[in-house]
Amino acid sequence: MTPSPATPLELTGPEMRTLVDAAMNRIVVHLESLPEQPAFDLDGAAELARSLAEPMPERGVPHDQALDLVFRAAPKSFNTAGPGYLAYIPGGGLFHAALADLVADAVNRYVGVWLAAPGLAQLEANVVRWFSEIVGYPPAARGMLTSGGSLANFSAIVTARRERLPADFLRGTVYASDQVHHSITKAAILAGLPPERVRVVPSDARFRLRLDALETLIAADREAGLEPFLLVTSAGTTNTGAVDDLEGAAAVAERHGLWHHADAAYGGFFALTERGHRVLRGLERADSITLDPHKGLFLPYGTGSLLVRDGAALERSHALEAEYLPPMQEDAEFVDFCQISPELSRPFRGLRVWLPFKLAGAGAFRAQLDEKLDLAHWAHERLREVEGVEIVAEPQLSIVAFRLTRPGLDADGMNRLNRELLERINARRRVYLTGTTVRGAFVLRICVLSFRTHLERMEQGLQDIRRAVEELR
Ligand SMILES: Cc1ncc(COP(=O)(O)O)c(C=O)c1O
């Protein structure tokens, strides 16, 4: 036997340390400068992107060269990890989770089947159990971590469809408000339902699903020979942060035998706080719940989750056997994640939630979320004092929506005015806000959800809003 040839794919201990140190040096500089970095910077970004297109390299380059390239590209972007990111739904980027990913990827154990790594699968199962406790689910609940809220919503709809409809399911109808996230319709389509089977239920003055309209739609569909099977509520809409009446929705769903899925991707983790828990009353009555740790727990992108109150339903809708797989667990104490999710091979996502909770404690998350509620209320109070500003949606959680009004302007003129306002606010690059359209009106929204956003940055944002309003007067 000749000795194995050296390969750049197998690193020695010192080489690994050198690489990690080189990356860490750049990461620390990058993260420590986040507050000074602009809230977004796309100047020259398209040219940069073009310049980075390249053929597959046959030979490697020195690590400094490769890392420098990444850290040159990173700042030309929305600064999604920075304190001024109040756009869309902010992600986060807890460093603890990045460390967990490094460990998980380096160890590269497989947690999809319990038998393959029982201890590590247990850490992930712990995380799911903690989430169930946060939302008030019983011990029979089960759940899994997904790549995000969209995939969680997809598995929820497949579960509901398989639990409530026959194999011939095309007469099934889904109900959600006109404010629901588009991933619900996408999930329904992916689950095989024609898009028109997703009924749009009007929302009330506070953008919450109207239960009376829901009842009317269900009755009409039954009358027409269709099969209402799923109600999707929003526990924090993306547009305005509206939380549907979850208690009332649960009662309607129970009365009509519908599966009730709560999309709590944005709002669900506020249940960790006392105030959030009150706003989310009734969440525990939903049959399934989507939570997005990469939103409400400040994790890096790529971590969502789905919880199902009757965990056995998740298994009934996802489990399959194959002769080449190892034996699955009969014992309800243990879980084979591949049997309750669409994925077989997948990353060990549990560690990126488990490690931050272990290192920082749940109290740190609760305090952060409480602060976000305070900051959104603070912003609301300040905005109310700005002449000409109309509050479109008061914060129910941590989003406030507003717009500038001017007497005599028609709807188009108002929309143009508010687009201009948004541009002027963002031009200062201390905060980055996004707008949306509700009931035909373009509105601006502030979504506070980063563990790096504190009062100081909110004050700067409010200053920039006031100045932009002044300029447009
Ligand atoms: C309410 C809501 N549901 C679902 C999603 C989709 O989640 P993801 O982007 O993680 O797929 C989002 C994303 O912003 C959301 O706000």
Shape: globular
Low-confidence stretches: none
The level of helicity is: 40-55%
- Determine the N-to-C terminus distance: 83 Å
Number of strands: 11
Instruction: Give the overall pLDDT as a whole number.
Output: 97
In the CATH hierarchy, what is the architecture of the largest domain at level 2? 3-Layer(aba) Sandwich
Radius of gyration: 24 Å
CATH superfamily of the largest domain: Type I PLP-dependent aspartate aminotransferase-like (Major domain)
- SSE class: alpha/beta
| CATH topological fold name of the largest domain | Aspartate Aminotransferase, domain 2
CATH class of the largest domain: Alpha Beta
Order of helices and strands: HHHHHEHEHEHEHEHEHEHHHEEHEEH
Number of separate domains:
2
Q: What percentage of amino acids are in beta strands? A: 5-15%
Strand order of the largest sheet: 1-7-6-5-4-2-3
Folded structure, characterized:
There is one protein chain. The chain is of the alpha/beta class. It has two domains: 102-361, Aspartate Aminotransferase, domain 2, CATH 3.40.640; 363-472, Aspartate Aminotransferase, domain 1 (Alpha-Beta Complex). The chain is 44% helix and 13% strand. The chain is built from 16 helices and eleven strands. The protein has helices at residues 13-32, 45-52, 63-73, 95-107, 118-135, 149-164, 182-190, 211-223, 246-256, 274-279, 293-296, 311-318, 350-360, 362-384, 411-427, 455-472, and strands spanning 142-146, 172-177, 198-201, 227-234, 259-264, 288-291, 304-308, 389-393, 399-404, 434-438, 441-447. The strands form two sheets. Strands 1-7-6-5-4-2-3 form a seven-stranded mixed β-sheet, sandwiched between helices. The chain has a four-stranded antiparallel β-sheet with strand order 8-9-11-10, covered by helices on one side. Strand 2 (172-177), helix 7 (182-190) and strand 3 form a beta-alpha-beta unit. Helix 1 (13-32) runs parallel beside helix 3 (63-73), helix 6 packs across helix 7 (182-190) and helix 14 runs parallel beside helix 16 (455-472). The longest helix is centred in the last third of the chain and has 23 residues, at 362-384. It starts with 12 loop residues before the first helix and ends with a helix.
